[in-house]
Amino acid sequence: MLDFRFPTALQMVLSVAVAEKQGMRSTSATLAAVLEANPSFIRKLMVPLTKDGIIVSTLGRNGSIHLGRPAEEITLRDIYLAVIDDKRIWASRPEVPARCLVSANACWYFKSVVNEAEQASLAVLARHTVADSLAELERGDKRACAEYAAEQEAEAADK
Prior knowledge:
Largest sheet: 2 strands, antiparallel
Strand order of the largest sheet: 1-2
Number of domains: 1
Oligomer: single chain
């Protein structure tokens, strides 16, 4: 089963950061609409993000969601660990009877390989902050817009 908690939480945090930069208000309803996600799923993800200080939420009619600390201080690892809980990337098979070399050792071996892979993934996520991610998205958006404009000019020139 696919787990969409991390990518959705990342999009939530990035959306809140963009809204803050633009002086706009974020709510769970606006995030759900922008991300085309179930509002209850958004609210469910807000709980661990708030608990870990990644976002803060004010209640009431004029309530809104803000980053809990500067974008430069929030890593993608922080977001991942907040929403994933203790769920492993891959789970080993339950212990099976030790009937041969493979069945006697597969579980511990798989766990060691998975642990190494998870640590490598977490190290990569730790190198990226929300601020870095936004800057990269903005660069990518400008590249995409420039490529689109060049394509449009080329098509117009061909006509």
